[in-house]
Amino acid sequence: MKELYMEIIQQSEEIPSEITISDVIRMKEMEITSWQEYEREQNKTRLQYYQSENPGEVDKIQQANKIFQDFYDEAKREKESNKDQQ
What we know:
Helix content is 83%, strand content 0%. With 86 residues, it is mostly helical. The longest helix is centred in the C-terminal third of the chain and has 31 residues, at 55-85. The mean pLDDT is 78.
């Protein structure tokens, strides 16, 4: 487990503040060591679950994600640059 945690740190360039032990276990099961890749997979899983529960709403969510993705990315970069400056 320690080795996997060290791999995650190396792949992610820092320790993700929101990582939990259950995340590390799931990452090991999925054979993923990149936090960003893990987040993408989790989002896909959530979307698939939500789609099965609410098929009409998923299209609206996907459209909103496409519209706001640039803003999300920019905010994430700003947050990371602020961390680097501190």
